[in-house]
Amino acid sequence: MNINFLVQQITPLYNKYRESKNIISGTEALEIMWDIGDILRQYIEEHHIAPHRLFWSVYGNAEGTQNVAKKSYITREFQNRCHRIRRIFSSKDQIRKDFPHLESFTTFREAMPFFDNGKYRLEGKEKKDLLSLLNSNLQPQTILRKIKSLQKERIGISNPRTQRLHEVENEKKTFISFYNFIYKLITFESYDMCLHEAGNVNSDYIKVLSKNVSALSQEGLKFFDLDIPSELKSPWKEFSQIVKHLISQKDAKMRRRFRRLVPVERIIRLADMLYGISSEENFISIKKRL
Q1: CB neighbours of 189 closer than 8 A, spacing ≥ 6?
Q2: Where does residue 48 fall: left (phi above 0), alpha (psi -120 to 50 degrees), or beta otherwise?
């Protein structure tokens, strides 16, 4: 199976999800994403390919696929989520057993670390209580607040003596500032306006920067030479210097600390947004997904 055929397999399910996500239950959304995750899992196992490498290939190949809804990309963030769902549930029967009354997929999405992260995964009574909360008839916003509270309690634990997260606090602040800058660029009505506000940065450089940002999301992914143009201006220059510093570290400790402060999904999303402003076609497509 080649990548194009893989995209053709995923596309009908992806379109079904996009077109119905606002009207279907969270349980139904999980089932659709499980199907996509199962297709990805089979390809990964058959071809011995790293998941994030495959997700990047699917994302790129979907770019030119005519039967993807509104010419959208099947983002790596979405693929990763489907793959995680497939790993969490052995079958769709298990989904229906665990979530007979899941109203909102968003509530499950926020609770995912408690189901598949070895460090934070809940077991026994704690897992049973979480399932009861997610299946309850409470308003989704109420459930989300309770999950956020649980995240703060269980995940927001730090140990400065060992993590030394303060060492990448500047990188975090630069990332947030640049993320907001790029997001604002995508809100402009035209690509010309976006380019002007961006400072007319070379599109090839933006693509290389996008690939390196994506590679920061997980160890083992390939980094690319990042030659920062001397004429590059703020905020591109500051962010590029941060990325170059992180990818140049032979020891992964600093990158791991960075990922503790900056969620992986945000890193992947910034990489996607950068790719989205690298050409007018990409710009038009990513605006439709905002």
Answers
A1: none
A2: left
Compute the distance between CA of residue 254 and CA of residue 172 in angstroms, rounded to an integer.
Answer: 12
Can you tell me the distance from the alpha carbon of 223 to that of 208, in angstroms, rounded to the nearest whole number? 9
Query: Which tens digits make up the pLDDT trace of 124-175?
Result: 999 999 999 999 999 999 999 999 999 888 876 444 444 566 667 888 899 9
Measured CA distances, 206 to 83, 203, 219, 224 (Å) = 28, 5, 21, 12
The residue type at 227: D
What's the number of CA atoms in the CB half-sphere (13 Å) around residue 101? 11
- Tokens encoding 121: 């995964």
Phi, psi of 256 (to 5 degrees): -65, -40
Q: What is the pLDDT of residue 114?
A: 92
Contact 277, 186 (CB under 8 A): yes
Give the number of other Cβ atoms within 10 Å of residue 197's Cβ. Answer: 13
Residue 163: its pLDDT value, please? 52
First to last CA, the chain: 32
Residue 101 tokens read as 């009354």
Could you write out the three-class secondary structure of 122-148? CCHHHHHHHHHHHCCCCCHHHHHHHHH
Show the DSSP H helices in the chain as ranges: 3-20, 26-47, 51-62, 76-88, 92-98, 105-111, 113-116, 124-134, 140-154, 160-163, 169-186, 191-198, 203-215, 236-247, 253-261, 264-276, 280-287
Q: How far apart are CA 183 and CA 215, in angstroms?
A: 20
> Mean pLDDT across the chain, nearest whole number?
87
The alpha helices in 155-190, defined as continuous H runs, are 160-163, 169-186
Query: Which has more pLDDT, 253 or 205?
Result: 205
Report residue 136 as tokens.
């309850």
